[in-house]
Amino acid sequence: MMNNLLLLSIALLCVGLSGKGTQTQAFSSRRTTTHRSSYQIQHQLTTLHSSSTTRRPTPSRIRETKNFKDAQKLSQKFLNDFDLLTENGDKGKRIAIFGGGLSGLACAKYLSDAGHTPTLYEARPILGGKVAAWQDEDGDYIETGLHIFFGAYPNIHNLFEELRITDRLQWAPHRMTFAMQELPGEFTSFEFPAGVPAPFNMAAAILGNTKMLTLEEKIKMVPGLLPMLLEGQSFIDAQDELSVLEFMIKYGMPDRINEEIFVSAACFPLLLLS
Fold first, then answer.
1. What pTM was computed for the model?
2. Percentage helix, strand, coil, to 5, in the chain?
């Protein structure tokens, strides 16, 4: 389900990342045999300037994952559907999409790729939904939501490549920073080393933090984390019926880990999207 949601949560970032909204309430996007993609949408996106700031390179391993390749196959299926429609002389369907958020924009793009004619309706004068961004009368850029996507989101990275906007994705260091309850005003970070695959990078981040976690707390985390390192996905799948709290209780992890780390991490996106 997560990948499907992300597949539909893509094209809008194209509007939001550079901070410029599209002043359109409704638009149609139709592909022809001589134009292999639905790029009335892309035409709006190409008006956005590319970032001139120095950016970290996209991790090469993203394109080598099975999930990323599966996403590419899904996109190719839409193009194959278009070819089939063309061969049969079918003009496709006319489809209305209500809502110009991430889902609506991505849906319009892929329907058009498949040879259909989508019309997207948005009540507001700007596209983007929860991640819309625009410039106000004072010249300030206003953002309404979370503009963060991770390397484990294969569909969105595949769509970035299709829309030729990967250069607008700014890769940040893998770091989790927390406010310390016992030391008001102070922060500490868990640094995930670059080039180290999960879950080994998580183990390194936990071991490398000397400010929040005590040695005793780190040792108590071993029974739950070590099987992840040794058994991998099979161990994780076997815990699927447990909540995070139930998992921590089962493997004897300290309560403070849940209260100060996991609860905080879980609330972060909710705060940004509220």
1. 0.59
2. 50, 10, 40
